[in-house]
Amino acid sequence: MQDRFxxxxxxxxIVPKVEREEFFNAGVIMFCKRKKYIGIKYNVNPNKLKALDxxxxxxxxxxxxxxxxxxxxxxxxxxxxxxxxxxDRFRWLSACRSTIIQSSKTHSGLTDxxxxxxxxxxxxxxx
Length: 127
Fold this sequence. Notes:
The N and C termini lie far apart (30 Å). It is built from five helices and five strands. By secondary structure, the protein is α+β, with helices and mostly antiparallel strands.
């Protein structure tokens, strides 16, 4: 039996018109301290976006989420936040905010394969 490790995750939400508070799930961010893992997976569904805001530009949302990925990956392009510890990056990305890209509250679980679990969460909550 493989060891299982605790992890935390948050669902990434697209909120095209913040004042209306309507959203759809577009991704998942996940953090597993013991495995030194932070991962993000997202997909902006154009049909869902246009249903909530016909004038929205999908490229804008993809650009913002790509910036989240750079922070998550810890690349120099992720800036000062991307240079932080894994846990600090996860906390920053999953923090409560009232912008067009938001996160759910964080949830926890157990995993023996963080990447596989990220894929499963994405399939369950986004697709």
